[in-house]
Design goal:
single chain, 226 residues, alpha/beta, Rossmann fold, Arc Repressor Mutant, subunit A, 5-stranded parallel β-sheet, 4-stranded antiparallel β-sheet, 41% helix
């Protein structure tokens, strides 16, 4: 999952970025409203975490610009020290999906991110089941037929994204956009390599394959009949 964090206070921005990274999120971070808006308009995000008091453009202006664009429905969590009812109403009316008052626990922010991504992909439960695979998005664990599967953070992020879109064909570009940091690259070969790692760990080479190649497009997670 890929998040955009727009927060002008460097220590808080870095703390949030580091924590979400440990939760297997790819995080792009910005300290100004205009740069944050550029990121939001030119990348695909699963959630945006947006401060209100920002230089150049404030968070409300960023929200209004995003929501003015047809089809832009990326979930947005506003984080702000402004804690009056009027402040929260203003943020929600401008298009935010959630409003979190500073100071807050990073674990609560992560829980709200998970809740919004569940809603975005139409899954109400923190557990995702695809055939014999069960993914627990709260503790980032994966099981197949009651056996725990140990995955690296990158492997887990890739499997989680495919599972949230199970039954759909997911292109390599979409995987790159949602799973890979820009600094490490997400070339077609890199994606294919990690798909190979996942297949091996999921036991696809020993039984019915769960990750299927859709030639010329990408990959699909689910039984072959789908």
């Amino acid at each position: 999952m890929r998040c955009l964090l727009v927060e002008d206070y460097p220590p808080l921005r870095e703390n949030i970025r580091e924590y979400l990274t440990t939760q297997h999120y790819v995080v792009d971070a910005s300290g100004t409203g205009d740069e944050g808006l550029w990121y939001a308009e030119n990348h695909h995000y699963d959630v945006i975490i947006l401060d209100i008091m920002l230089p150049n453009l404030n968070g409300i202006q960023v929200l209004q610009a995003l929501r003015a664009k047809q089809g832009n429905n990326v979930p947005v969590i506003v984080i702000s020290a402004k804690d009056t009812v009027n402040n929260r109403v203003e943020g929600l009316d401008a298009g935010a999906d959630d409003y979190l008052v500073k100071p807050f626990a990073l674990s609560e922010l992560a829980a709200r991110v998970r809740a919004l991504t569940r809603r975005r992909y139409g899954t109400l439960s923190p557990r995702i089941e695809v055939g014999p695979i069960e993914i627990n998005r709260t503790n980032k664990s994966v099981r197949r037929d009651d056996h725990t599967i140990q995955l690296t953070p990158r492997e887990y992020a890739l499997l989680e994204y495919l599972a949230l879109r199970s039954g759909e064909t997911v292109t390599r570009t979409e995987i790159w956009d949602h799973v890979y940091e820009d600094s490490t690259g997400g070339s077609s070969n890199n994606v294919d390599v990690y798909i190979g790692y996942l297949r091996k760990k999921l036991g696809d080479n020993d039984g019915e394959p769960l990750i299927q190649t859709v030639r010329g497009y990408g990959y699909r997670l689910g039984p072959p009949s789908e």
